Amino acid sequence: MTSKSYDISSLKAQALQFRRxxxxxxxxxxxxxxxxxLSAVEIFLALYGVVMNHRPSEPKWEGxxxxxxxxxxVTPVVYVTLANFGYFPKDELKTFRKFGSRLQGHVHHKVPxxxxxxxxxxxxxxxxxxxxxxxxxKGKDFRAYxxxxxxEIQEGSVWEAAMSAAHYKLDNVCAIVDYxxxxxxxxISEIKGLDPLGDKWKSFGxxxxxxxxxxxxxxxxxxxxxxxxxxxxxxxxxxxxxxxxVPFMELKSAWHGKAPNKExxxxxxxxxx
Length: 273
Ligand SMILES: Cc1ncc(C[n+]2csc(CCOP(=O)(O)OP(=O)(O)O)c2C)c(N)n1
Ligand SMILES: [Mg+2]
What we know:
11% strand, Rossmann fold, binds thiamine diphosphate, 10 helices, binds magnesium ion, single chain, alpha/beta
């Protein structure tokens, strides 16, 4: 099935609203990961709003496309997205990371809409491969999407999975690298550079699409190209900005895993774009 029709100005307004809610959720919790959540807002919005086949009222519907959030620490963007699409009440976001809440710091399958527990980086793509193989074996047309961080793909297990997907010609797998240029403790380019990243994936047998990953139209087009690509898996290298939308958080590893306090939240909401 092709993507749903969409209105770009309402999607952009929704992206801004997601960013606001991510920041508020983090401030209420007092901990969590803003940087890699803010960079990935458009990726999540494109997938849930336009690209994926899914039914919020029936999260386990067999025909659904599966999204594996391999960088499992970005629960603020995952839960804000799922709540906005009706997987659970929005009010529940206030319980994020609180004792007894199902909304914990890393994604968990007990939350409606979450496919697979992650948190230990480097495992999601193997799982997505399994989902894609299951679709093939069952003769179903659902697809597997897997979002990974740029720091995450320094893990060797990612490249083992990349080899497998190409070997089995899993054209129903789409990996998305949130190339936000920053990992936990600094810049990717200074810690362990990835470039030429597209060439690496290409040499592993993947179809490569390199785009501005904060551009909703570019993302939606890229996902269409994935759906039309046969005989090999697709990777979308989504060039984003860690902390996107809050200038004082942008490209700052200090905001990888730190919640804004009340004052910082107020400031962030004032300058948010
Ligand atoms: C196997 C493993 N090693 C280390 C960590 C700790 N850790 C959590 S997030 C993170 C940085 C990930 O960076 P990146 O993939 O670039 O994520 P993003 O920038 O999207 O937040 C690290 C090292 C982990 N969760 N799992
Ligand atoms: Mg990163």
